[in-house]
Specification:
Beta Polymerase, domain 2; alpha+beta
């Protein structure tokens, strides 16, 4: 269930016709891999017209920027998140984080083309990042994201494995992080597994009796992704430190 304050945020986004995709914990809830989250995370199109519509929606929510960087297209296009806090009576203290660029994730127009549209119980329509794109976006250096990646893919497998499409099978073989399920998938679809081994080398050990080795290989795969994410964020963190220092100097002068 999406809490009322988040529904208020989403309805404001819809009313202003903002091109935005729900991602983060609330999207995970909608995909059946529950995660507790009080925030609303959005991927947005960073065009001048769309950002103007987003600004109007945030004004409706009485939302203000609560940290660096400022709400400017330059920072969104470089990969920063901009953080807001709502003061509207229907969304008190609700935090809204917006991004337009993420490591390893396609450009917004491609994400938008693959979106899922969901109608909430109150009639609000919500554009949600596709499950494969959400999984890709969750592969960060943050500890809490990796259990969610595992649950998202496993939940999708259990929902669709009886009558899967070829696209589903490729997705599972590329992304499953539960050794037992990966072994099961490799046994059920050996031809697809063989085709994907060069792309994901650990599929070569997705066999019964190899679950321990497979778990170790999955852990190594996760470490590599975390390291890549740390390298990606290093210059962005330097930007934020410079912005914080500039703000501190401004407020102390």
């Amino acid at each position: 269930m999406i809490p009322n304050p988040i529904r208020k945020v989403l309805s404001s986004i819809e009313a202003r016709r903002v091109r935005a995709l729900l991602m983060g914990g609330q999207a995970c809830i909608l995909y059946g891999a529950a995660e507790f989250s009080r925030d609303t995370d959005l991927a947005v199109l960073a065009s001048p017209a769309n950002l103007a519509r987003l600004r109007k929606a945030l004004d409706d929510l009485q939302a203000e920027v609560i940290a660096v960087p400022p709400f400017e297209a330059e920072y969104l296009r470089r990969g920063h998140a901009v953080h807001f806090r709502c003061q509207h009576l229907e969304a008190p203290a609700m935090r809204v984080d917006v991004m337009t660029r993420m490591r390893g994730v396609d450009s917004f127009p491609k994400l938008w083309a693959r979106r899922n549209s969901i109608e909430l119980p109150d009639g609000t329509h919500c554009a949600v990042m596709s499950l494969p794109d959400l999984v890709r976006a969750k592969k960060t250096q943050r500890d809490k994201h990796w259990p969610m990646v595992r649950r998202l893919v496993a939940a999708h497998y259990f929902q669709q494995h009886r009558k899967p499409s070829a696209i589903h099978v490729r997705f599972w073989l590329r992304e499953l992080r539960t050794p037992e399920l990966l072994v099961e998938a490799a046994e059920r679809w050996p031809a697809a597994c063989a085709r994907l081994k060069q792309r994901r080398l650990l599929l070569g050990m997705a066999r019964p009796g190899e679950e321990s080795r497979l778990a170790a290989a999955l852990a190594a795969e996760e470490r590599r992704e975390r390291q890549e994410d740390a390298r990606y964020w290093a210059p962005l963190k330097s930007d934020l430190e410079a912005l914080r220092l500039a703000r501190f100097r401004h407020t102390t002068n």
